[in-house]
Design brief:
The chain is of the alpha+beta class. Helices cover about 30% and strands about 30% of the residues. Bound molecules: cobalt (II) ion.
Amino acid sequence: MFKIIKYPEIILRKTAKIVTSFDIELKETSIEMYNIMQKLGGIGLAGPQINFNKRIVIIGDLNNKDYSVYVNPEITYFSNDKEISEEGCLSLPNIFGLVKRSKKIHLKYKDLEGNKIKEKLKGLKSVVIQHEIDHLNGILFIDRVEEITKGKEKLKELKYKLENNV
Ligand code: CO
């Protein structure tokens, strides 16, 4: 059974590995990721967040009835046009902050069968995908945040723990 990995656990800072085998383990992992995400009420989840150090991301749809899986996702275009929105993260519960990201992106990725797909994204989905791909590169939204809007004290506490090894 997977559990959610929380900041400041070190796996969240590692670069996830490229997926090379599109096997049953990958499919099962994506289903487990969806179950965890739904249970915790998130809209996106990346492999490292469940201690699966591979380049896989899932994004829930807005009514949380369905989800999309992105394997080895790469952003090939970021619009210069950016917007600021409030982000949170299942690995940083009860902490929220304002992050500036590109409004539109072009994405290439593979599906669970290994088929190559290209997609243009905008709006919330574009923001969520950028947040999740950051996870695959060991980057968290608190690294990009312009302002913490909720949980400032909690974050301070966690950073203190990290810096002082307690
Ligand atoms: Co996150």
